[in-house]
Amino acid sequence: MTLTLARTMPGVLELLPPEQIAFQDMLDTIRGNFQRFGFLPIETPAIEFADILLTKQGGETERQVYFVQSTGALSALDRDADEKPELALRFDLTVPLARYVAEHERDLSFPFRRYQIQRVYRGERAQRGRFREFYQCDIDVIGKDRLSVRYDAEMPAVIHSVFRDLRIGPFQIQLNNRKLMRGYFESLGVTSDQQMLVLREVDKLDKRGAEAVRATLIGAPLGLSDAAVARIMAFVEVRSHSHADALARLDALEGGGDLFEQGRSELKEVLQLIRAFGVPESHYALNLSIARGLDYYTGTVYETHLLEHPQIGSICSGGRYDNLAGNYTTSHLPGVGISIGATRLFWQLREAGLLGAASSTVQVLVTMMDEAQLPAYLELATQLRNAGIATEVVMEPGKLAKQFKHADRAGVRFVAVLGPDEQAKGVVTLKDMRKQEQFEVARGELVRTLRVELEQAQVMG
Amino acid sequence: MTLTLARTMPGVLELLPPEQIAFQDMLDTIRGNFQRFGFLPIETPAIEFADILLTKQGGETERQVYFVQSTGALSALDRDADEKPELALRFDLTVPLARYVAEHERDLSFPFRRYQIQRVYRGERAQRGRFREFYQCDIDVIGKDRLSVRYDAEMPAVIHSVFRDLRIGPFQIQLNNRKLMRGYFESLGVTSDQQMLVLREVDKLDKRGAEAVRATLIGAPLGLSDAAVARIMAFVEVRSHSHADALARLDALEGGGDLFEQGRSELKEVLQLIRAFGVPESHYALNLSIARGLDYYTGTVYETHLLEHPQIGSICSGGRYDNLAGNYTTSHLPGVGISIGATRLFWQLREAGLLGAASSTVQVLVTMMDEAQLPAYLELATQLRNAGIATEVVMEPGKLAKQFKHADRAGVRFVAVLGPDEQAKGVVTLKDMRKQEQFEVARGELVRTLRVELEQAQVMG
After folding, report:
1. Which residues bind L-histidine (chains A, B) (predicted)?
2. Would you say domain A17-351 falls under CATH 3.30.930.10?
3. pLDDT digits (tens, 9 = 90+) for B134-153
4. For domain B20-27+102-109+122-351, is the CATH number 3.30.930.10?
């Protein structure tokens, strides 16, 4: 028989169990924080009607969409080159959210606070660090008709809580407001069409550097005046160094019309409430170059950076938008949200050597000393499992050294030995694989002892 | 602007948040039990190379496969009707497991115990209760070269633990062994080819009834003798009513050759160990009609039935197979596994009215009494969140009655009121939405009080 080479498509991150456990811990931490902030879970199908996903038509998005066809549809397909398949895979969680809210509007209570942790699919060109299938972890608050800017302050509070708990080093949430930016550019005589180009350009400031950005603003097709560009550059280079500094720098801006003032007032309110949420001021700052690529943001925008690993770029971004689901409903649904690209983040942390030592979800391995005693081993395992301790039992006879090696390789913390001596004495011998210590525990004390040891491990984790 | 109708593809189960929470609870219970039994998590990409998924070629499976193409591939495709797309969506978790084990064989420790909880995709004809995208929750133990039949006894122990914790009523795990069946049929002169047909036929006994099955066995093309059919029917109608009864019924079978005896001995060992695992004997029984449709099972087979809802059919099935990954590796990898179709199970429980009242993941809603006091509300929420209590804050002013209605509608348990009176007295007024009781709690006692109340709620579930 011919063998098929076992392989995955390029652009996916498939993990071995120890890494999968670390990744699952990351997702659980994110989910736990989303829930603690009162966000409700939803899940949507990976497959959606293509016309739902591609309402905007054309552009980058459609070039990356994966279309889906069942075998029946494939053979029935009228093979006209212009005919697109009816189904596609979601490429983000925002479009499905818009469809979800529009479809279930009558059954939802607004402001609707949802979290969603699912995979998305993009037919990217294969490239290191680019994924075709990856997790997004999103939260959004959706208002009916209106949504207070106060909710914009909640996002940094969630981001702070998530990344504090993930323990991946110091981080900073950077804030800006597109009304502030556009209002400021407007006051310099930059037209509405130009503003969008300027936003996209200054957004690259931290990547490309000031000189490159300045050159683009001055050169064709923008061709802004030297004076305007000088003021734009001074504006977008604003970074704050404390809470008071952020407010002072906003007050110091000499701006223009209503849009600018609205942005300034929103940003000040958001800053004040972030502090009220208890976010330490070292964890948030103004960065007036941030615009976020997507045109649908209209107010507050966020990025999050690991201070010791600037090369990683933003690990959590988002912002405020005016209307979520205008393609599917006449209801006006403003919202604010953030997204963590967990697969890419995990990959980057691994690349940067920031992932801790892998530990197993299995906490105890019960060894097999004597086949005839298997029922006693199973009984021991059942006792531990009923106490919530994850336990594996060796079910086939084999050298004890090999059994210990299995535990070690799998990252199991404790190996339990229940030999004839132990059975006679009513004890179990536990070997702590991390400390390389061995000790006897009375059967009646076993669960309590393991719980104490495992809890310490978790705290020290 | 033209609106696109917000809708999902037929054959998907999209849930509103209260149901999504109940579904998530189900998945968490399943996952928790898989982990407690020492199974390790893996996840595989939804998109695989089509040649990996379709090694067996043709048949029912390929007719249900969803093929995937990026836009680039679509336009480049040589539109020859025979050319199949290169990528497809997984239709189960077993084929991806086989590919995973073959691909990562050198990095895995055997016996490899994995759990996997992910969605799978099948282009089924749209039909009530049939899903095109649904969760499977699988565990498998894979041996290298060999795997003791003892592992077959662990599956019912996991099934028992899962369905005990899901609390969906009394259930029974039914066991059989395909060696026992085939050996028995062989002794009646049923040829090897006929055996497969007979297995498929008797597997339908509980659905179609004895008369229909008997008629098929006697009629063309099988055309078995009356005597053989009488003995087959007597065999497949065996059901046990206790542990001792199961062993006695196995002993009472008058069988044939080696294959039969091997099956009998395996089944007896499995029964003995199931008891050693502590599974109460009311929860397992012989059902000698069970064969499972899939031809790749070779030994023990399982089904699980809700005793009070026989119409639901098996809610967890699986069995032993000889070689997992023969399509991808020359290594011999025997295994045993089970699968829970969680989406279908959830849907069936809902249809049968077996889902409890929905409760929210949000535990406390902090009301807004006075806009100026928002920082105090946020501080209160941060205190609760840091204590692990899921808390939502109303951020926009509105009638208090409307805020309570929002909590009620969302299934939030407690509403916290922090008005001027409460602030003066250093207390918070809590309204228990379930008990419809209201009481004041000192700020210093708040976390402790809520924890006690919420834990009681959980225990009372």
Report:
1. 92-94, 122, 136, 140, 292, 296-297
2. yes
3. 999 999 999 999 999 999 99
4. yes
